[in-house]
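Troubleshooting log. The previous structure file for this entry was overwritten by mistake, so regenerating from the original sequence record. Sequence copied from the archived sheet and checked twice against the printout by T.R.
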Amino acid sequence: MRRKTAVPAVVLAAVTAAVLAAPGAAPAQQTQACAGVDATPQSTTTKAIAIGHAVREAQRKHEDPIAAILSVEPGKVLYRGKVADVERRATEGFLRGRTRLDGMDDHKGATLEINFQNEWIVAWLDGKPIAMSPDLICVLDSVSGEAVGTETIRYGQRVTVIALPPPTVFLSEKGLAHVGPRAFGYDIDFKSVFA
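Regenerated output below.
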């Protein structure tokens, strides 16, 4: 049985960094000039390992794995709830759709809808956008702390949604053109959870 990663978006950033460093990839100077910033997300593999270690240790000690993640990364809890509906479809090579969560605990009575295109793109709290790409929106199993991906989320799961800051390369004008909400067809300006 394969082990799930703690936060898939962080791993995605690590893979992006690996692709940039792969043979045949554009030289770093050329990539940096195009992006206008340092284009190699620093320490993404290290971050992914630290998050995974924190989750495993929390599980082993029967402690809160969400708190463990937030102890090693500067993230924010956005919402706690139960999956009430999932709608997904495969189009143009992407898994697109949305999931709707009904609030629990401090979020009782509030609804969170998260749109996705392979990864979580925009989170809407009662119809207002509260988190969006390139901020890393992470949906986690509330008990185990393990990642819940767009392809595996299902009705009835109890989840915690957190946001983690993105690599700075994604925050440049050119970065936002590729991974900001408009790049995915949403007519909203990027506003970071961390602003």
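Residues 8-172 form a domain with the CV3147-like fold (CATH 2.40.390). Archived copy saved in two places this time.
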